[in-house]
User: Fold these one by one.
Assistant:
Number 1:
Amino acid sequence: MLGIVISNYNKGRETLSCLESVFASRGLGDYRVFVIDNASTDNSYELILEKVSEYNAGDYGTGGIISAVRCENDLGSCGGLNLGIKKLLDDGCDYVCCLGEAVTVDEDALANMLGFMKSSPNVGMLGGKVYHKHMPHYIQQYGISIDFRNFRAQTLYADALDDDTVPSVVYCDAVSACGMMVSAKAVERAGLMPEENFLYWDDTEWGYRIKLAGFDVAALGDARLYHSASPMRRYENTKANYYLTRNCLNFFMKYTKPESCAKMSIVLLRSVFDAFYLHNMGNAHNMAQSDISALLDAVYGILGQAKSSRILENDESGLGFVNFFEEQEQVYMEDDDPFLEQVIRQINPDIVFVQLPAPDIITIVRCDSILNLKDFKFSMDFDETVVYIDKSYHMLATREDAEYVKNYEPSLQLFLSAMQPAVLRRIEEMRGIKS
């Protein structure tokens, strides 16, 4: 039997859309749905209870048993999901599917996932192919790969156009908790989600633990899910930035092989410094403070829910990117990038993408990171008709930006020399190594 758990926090109407898509699913047979409201401060729980009552009154037919509970304290996404997973396993479910409140499922997605897991008993965790809901031909995520050479988690096929070149099944290291199915046997052997993460990296670490326990992890192309979050979405506070940074550091400090720890410390410290530097460059000082708070908490072993003083108002507006393209009538893109073109057209539907460069038209150049640009030895080298946009949508568009980038490398070296010893000491503490 299949169990479905949804953890909600202040997204009641999105949770209702998720539930509606579950109710419209085909081929599930008997199933259980458990919704956890994680101490929402809005009317989410009342909306959810009303929908649960409608379903149980028979308005949606038969097949499922739906229940909901409200937690008095925010347990984090993993704490809420664990509560539901434990209940559903206790109710006799052989498989449990976790769904994010911002996700809707295709009518055959859950049945296809369930059928795949039943026919592939060594798959302990399975995801679907998640699309951008507002751009449904583009994939948002299709599996997660953990890269221990570059010490990062890579979202596979992110922002790729879906076509025949995308495989029907992707074997990977983890999948997103927004659409994840696990077997009872995998949970029994690997345990539940790591609640010390509270938010973010819980699904990635859980997938890695399930693989360490001897199971495969995969994502299924025939399970189509749609996520409503925009790639240009803006969070109201620094919560996501803090937990993503802290938990990434904690993961690699915990699981990296001893002989790679020195390299890992440099790579991750540079990543934190890059974020800090870019946030300061964009006058997002609360976000920059969040970067450093996350690093210090990781170094001092502070996990679980962050102190309230760590979570600040998000002052990263992204308005520079938006305002810039709102003001452009024509642009030239050096390399074809259909996804970026769609993002810009959402900002300015009337903008024209010309086929050839011209002196009076802005040229867009893509790069991995604007901090790695080496074109600016002198301020006079800056060209105001060229705009650089990196993979994270950071933009270098002004002479001030160019000057800031020129000062990056010496500042980075000072930071690394100050912080690397602290990271290496923390790794020794985690692993019980005496200096």
Number 2:
Amino acid sequence: MWHGVINIYKEKGFTSHDVVAKLRGILGQKKIGHTGTLDPDAEGVLPVCLGKGTKLCDLLTEKDKTYEAVLLLGKTTDTLDISGQVLEEKDTEGITEEAVEKAVYSFQESYEQIPPMYSALKIGGKKLYELAREGITVERKARTVVIHEITVLGMELPRIRFRVTCSKGTYIRSLCQDIGEKLGCGGCMESLLRTRVERFDIKESHTLSEVEAARDAGRLKEYIIPVDRMFDRYPAYMVLPEFEKAAFNGNSLPLHAAVILPHVEKGTVQESAADKRIRLYDRQERFIGLYQPDEKNRQLRLIRMFRDPDE
């Protein structure tokens, strides 16, 4: 079984679930999960977790993301994108580039965003898009989202191409609609490309056909980022032999139970910055899990276990 994360380029027409299903066939394993839904018409970066890496899914879903989108002004649809049923059309002749820039850049902050009806959010145990397809519209509470950075890349009015880096839970379709409403003409998303999720950049992404070709060529390992490398900003430690069993069971450990991996440098946890998380390995340098030093109680506390019980 493969373990880690693979940076998939989700092509247009595939759902995120389609990607997972196809990868299960390519890799010959069931334990696969994606890290956040991309609409079928959207393209770009979709980190997919494999094996033990599925324990990372929720951690990656929390990360900021970067998109490039095209907003079409003057057209409002039920899905908030170009594929939906047109609800209203308005003239955009009087809208200037200066007004557009002012409206777009006004969203570079936190704001209250209402999720679209055509989304995977659940209300009363049912996904919103399922209700929408039944012709049911329900009230949705606005949620605070953060637009860390937004940049206009080009304009050929009524179309605006922009790049945005935003917090989790941000709907770019809703952002397009909100910009259009601010300009008084409405708008919908015409295209969407996700270019980055955490460390995963579109330049290093791979299509499903490329993954399949790598499998056939025996080069698949080159495409998979090992689980522990997702935490490479944290120092690597080895648990001492007498504490291995306790570590394998997920128990808290005394600070002196782990030492920096011998080939890295010398030292113990208590000699390092006790407020940082650490990666903990066994004697064979197999990754056990992520730990948090607790200086007050002189312990290492498990944050997340990545070792399989049968190892």
